[in-house]
Design goal:
By secondary structure, the protein is an all-alpha fold. Helix content is 78%, strand content 0%.
Length: 298
């Protein structure tokens, strides 16, 4: 009899504990949803404010004109082409090295001391402020290698900035590949490299592409590293080679915002809208590529 009473009492306490945990879990979900909605409201307010100020300045002439000291004649062509040029060179420099480094760390060097040392440093570098990369680019590329404030120097600096992110995201994509795919490839007599190239990489490609494009999206909005290496705030021409001086959209927007004339603030708002469209396009491309390759694998 006493045993039955004790068992019932214990069951009651367990049920009350489960109910309490469910209420805490529901409260946490509601709190997280409220914070998300609040953040989205702030974001929508900022975008609406920028749209109200800059939408009237958006036109084909604004996209194709070069910089001017007169707000009614100011355009964004040189900054837009500079951003696209710099990010393309950044991708050429960072993506192959980042993917190759991730393959080595994940598939070949997981147990060596060198791989562990590289992994620790990459994890630390991913959290370094961007201004530090700008100082490194100034000392290494601009001065030591005598590249000057060129497109190549800016792209190399941004490549160092996004390289840890590309490596980490690629490693996560490789790690998500089921082990049975590797084991089946080895069972059929494939070598390590054949397994990685023909079996692992195709499966991990959606995650690799998504992480890479998101890393490049971060780079295209960076200002501090490029200002540090000497990127110009006023360039009346578009870059025509990797050795040309350049400016990018964030620097040009900063230049317009710092002007005392209110007309330039409307021009800066239009530039912000162009930058947002560019970032949304890159993120949409990442989602589209991921879904496309996942459908092929499915």
């Amino acid at each position: 009899m006493n045993g039955t009473v004790l068992t019932t009492s214990a069951d009651g306490r367990a049920l009350r504990a489960i109910a309490w945990r469910r209420r805490i879990d529901l409260l946490f979900q509601v709190l997280a949803l409220a914070i998300l909605c609040l953040a989205l409201v702030f974001l929508a307010t900022l975008i609406a404010d920028v749209w109200r100020d800059g939408a009237s300045r958006l036109s084909w002439d604004f996209l194709t004109r070069i910089a001017s000291r007169r707000p009614e004649q100011a355009g964004i062509w040189h900054a837009l082409t500079g951003s696209i040029f710099v990010i393309l060179v950044t991708a050429v420099l960072a993506v192959p090295v980042g993917i190759a480094g991730a393959i080595y760390l994940e598939e070949y060097g997981t147990r060596s001391r060198l791989a562990r040392l590289i992994e620790i440093n990459i994890t630390n570098l991913a959290a370094v402020p961007s201004i530090i990369y700008g100082l490194l680019g100034l000392g290494l590329f601009v001065r030591m290698l005598a590249m000057g404030p060129s497109v190549l120097a800016g792209a190399a600096t941004l490549a160092l900035l996004v390289l840890p992110v590309i490596i980490l995201s690629t490693r996560e994509a490789l790690r998500a590949v089921p082990g049975s795919i590797r084991e089946g490839s080895y069972a059929l007599g494939a070598t390590k490299w054949q397994t990685v190239w023909y079996q692992v990489l195709p499966v991990a490609l959606p995650g690799i592409l998504t992480g890479t494009i998101l890393a490049l999206s971060r780079a295209i909005g960076e200002t501090a590293p490029l200002i540090t290496i000497g990127a110009l705030t006023f360039v009346p021409f578009a870059p025509d080679s990797i050795w040309s001086p350049f400016t990018v959209l964030p620097i040009q927007i900063f230049n317009w915002v710092s002007r005392p004339q209110r007309e330039f603030h409307a021009v800066a708002a239009a530039g912000i809208l162009v930058l947002l469209v560019l970032l949304v396009t890159m993120n949409a491309a990442a989602i589209w590529l991921r879904d496309r390759y996942q459908k092929k694998l499915g």
